[in-house]
Here is the input.
Amino acid sequence: MSTATALFSSLFGPRSPQNHALFRRNGARISSLRGFTVTMAVISTTSLEVCVKASVTTHNKLGDCPFCQRVLLTMEEKHLPYDLKLVDLANKPEWFLQISPDGKVPVAKLDEKWVPDSDVITQLLEEKYPDPPLVTPPEKASVGSKIFSTFIGFLKSKDPSDGTEQALLNELSSFNDYIKENGPFINGEKISAADLSLGPKLYHLEIALGHYKKWSVPDALPYAKSYMKTIFSTESFIKTRASPDDVVAGWRPKVMG
Here is the structure.
């Protein structure tokens, strides 16, 4: 028995499939003394409690909030263990309203305080857990930031000639040009906070516009499309994404309203 295995067994007992799954969930691997050291660094952090939207289509599954996914992506990329609290936003429980009087998600417990707003939560996570760093330089932090609002405008539009589609195409074109010169990510070679914010919004764009308008990002924007494919295929994104059915259901009131 190796030193690492013996130490693990003495602390946690036999390495059962359940234990193994737990450490895989927290982004760690136990295969050597070095790997075990990394694991110890990860599990030494108390699991962070975070309230997120529950699925409306599947019981006990994550819902379709892009802001919740942003927070979860940040925790995943920083290899932080977390405890999900799924909230039915159509029937908010009293315990949730006590910690989030506005009834909004995400809300995360940091330093024994419940903190709302994905901007605030991700900033505090960066300050409290700076390794690995995810900071996007200020001059790049707003890249792609207008895509989400123009997507919503086009999605809700009932008039094909009102210019909302062109407004979205203009923003996507600018983003395409930026990634062409600076990619594959917003801050170059490594994923950063701006990607973790934009990625979930682009996921909603792809699914909602595909369903409600039979529309997709044009092939004339290959770098934007490649960016989306890269972000959507990361392990952290796959783990924290909502189901397409939830995304469709989530946008239905805005489209039909």
Summary: The first strand starts at residue 48 and ends at 53. The beta strands are 48-53, 82-87, 107-110, 113-116. The two ends are 64 Å apart (CA to CA). Residues 193-212 form the longest helix (20 residues).
